[in-house]
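Input:
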Amino acid sequence: MHLGIDIGGTKTDAVVVDADGTLRGRRTLPSGRGADAVVAAALDAAWGASAAAGAAPSDLTVGIGTPGAICDGVVSHALNLDVERLDLAGGFAAAFGVRPAVDNDVNVAALGAYTLLGGTGSMGYLNLGTGLAAGLVLDGRLWRGARGAAGEIGQICIDPNGPVGTDGLPGGLETYASGSGLMLQWGVEGSTGADVVAAAAAGDPRAVEIRDRAFYGLATAVRILVVTLDVDEVVVAGGMTKWGDELFDGASRILEGWAATSPFLRSLNLSSRMRPLNLEVPVAAIGAAMLGGGRG
Amino acid sequence: MHLGIDIGGTKTDAVVVDADGTLRGRRTLPSGRGADAVVAAALDAAWGASAAAGAAPSDLTVGIGTPGAICDGVVSHALNLDVERLDLAGGFAAAFGVRPAVDNDVNVAALGAYTLLGGTGSMGYLNLGTGLAAGLVLDGRLWRGARGAAGEIGQICIDPNGPVGTDGLPGGLETYASGSGLMLQWGVEGSTGADVVAAAAAGDPRAVEIRDRAFYGLATAVRILVVTLDVDEVVVAGGMTKWGDELFDGASRILEGWAATSPFLRSLNLSSRMRPLNLEVPVAAIGAAMLGGGRG
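Output:
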């Protein structure tokens, strides 16, 4: 059986699935802060899920998804876990007895979504969360790039006169369509993306501008992924998608406007290749389990 | 041995290489116009190169690179060959006796460059020709996408207030850094890209603006390919690269400016991952031979 652990900014979610992908056990706990607590929470969740599945560690493969940059099981710069550097694979294996495969959270979620949606070809998994990044599944396998930086499309400039991001550069896609980007543009301490959406609905002109940029950013992300990689579909997930139909309808209108003008973009059917991820299952944890099982 | 044919807008170039990639024969002829003449020129070049190599058709695998959209050996919309639709694989095989593998010109050139440069990981092959497109070699194999449209990054909008392209949409990357894009912006009948470069050198302010957009376009193409795919390097080729150092220096200055501001972009070493293709060999024809030999 396969144990998968999704370490998020707020919770650590562990699942055990069998060879058919059927869920056999699950345990969800608050995430730790700092290197030691992050490992401790992952271990507690892992033991809990294993016990629920009636599986001993020696029966399991293990995969873990985590924020941050990953190299050989070592996590760096996972700022929302207060982790500067952590040998996650080593620390976990020392206590659990099985060395986990470790990858970043967007990649394992991409793998989970691809598997759960019955994917057969290629998929761009667009995560609109605190940040904006994509997981790329090409011919059924994750494409990570030369240094594990593939999918960082949030760092593409889509307007040299656009809003300046936290990195000091203008027009980054992440500033248009992510939680942190909306907050940066709105600039009101303690507010959330939902506040901006509500202000736009109430007619606040600055909020309307930020909202319309989010539609444009999502549409542009879909266009970038399809014209660059010609993925079968772009699955859109992450906290910002709780916004719901208004976001997808707004982006679709822009995609359809482009298609009405450009024969090439029309031939790509961009609008019909954008797909909200609507799954009531722990996609990232299941993806982590797939990763540990040798998929991806 | 492997026969490769590169059908270009002006010439058709056939080579025969052996298993080591050593050139054994070559024949270059003017390309035909229209479906029948295109096939006839390809056959004449093929027979010429085979004879020069002392090889019979039955000793050869065959690969062909051509402009246009390719599906199962059928070429569509190869406008600069006056071809609307052509069963190139079928027509060639009927006379030559060997069915060729057929792919688009940018893809076979990417494969040739990757092989000749001794590539081991991944490469974006950025063609700045009449149009702008990329060939993607990932883990040593061409990535073509779901419908063969991968690499069409010329169709990404990099500035919603940028110059309007032939498709009616603003700011397309192709308009910034391709022969057709420069001509479209310059708007002087019968002029060439070299005329714009000369006018910019003479201080014409509109030419300077177009030149600077070309630098920005090349830098942006490199940034898009690296942040999206994290390819080991971006090899830049195509007619526009005859412009030489001024083009690459101009793009490098922009890439280095971004790196000075953004820690993430700095960590990617964009400037050092951009590489002009400086090879005095028929890259596309050799790539076509590799394709026919089962590479890519």
